[in-house]
Amino acid sequence: xxxxxxxxxxxxxxxxxxxxxxxxxxxxxxxxxxxxxxxxxxxxxxxxxxxxxxxxxxxxxxxxxxxxxxxxxxxxxxxxxxxxxxxxxxxxxxxxxxxxxxxxxxxxxxxxxxxxxxxxxxxxxxxxxxxxxxxxxxxxxxxxxxxxxx
Length: 150
What we know:
Organism: Capitella teleta
Keywords: Immunoglobulin domain, Membrane, Transmembrane, Transmembrane helix
Number of helices: 2
Strand content: 25-35%
InterPro entries: Ig-like_dom, Ig-like_dom_sf, Ig-like_fold, Ig_sub, Ig_sub2
Pfam family, one: Ig_3
GO cellular component, one term: axon
CATH class of the largest domain: Mainly Beta
Order of helices and strands: HHEEEEEEEEEEE
CATH topology of the largest domain: Immunoglobulin-like
Number of domains: 2
């Protein structure tokens, strides 16, 4: 780790040039204890520059709304599961049922609508929010389907 920091600091120091092309500093030997502090200073400067230039894209961090199972749904009704997550750029949503991604063109929304719910629709559902920087999983919820007795 120390050698990586030494190389980083040396490259940075020796890369500094005045407008006339001459080096800004001429150092023969830097005490090894200074490398850690100089590397941290360089790193914090680079991070500050990135944020100053508007590099504020972040992976989804948390769900602002988790799916809720609610009570058992009667067969034939519509069950709606909602999830929302924060992140920049805005997350895209996918849904899993019993640990497997559901396949359908209408499953990229933060709302999952199960229309005309039937017994095979019962199971564990989970929302996946993702963007170009990462993904997070919601809590699993168990959706129950009830039969109407007459």
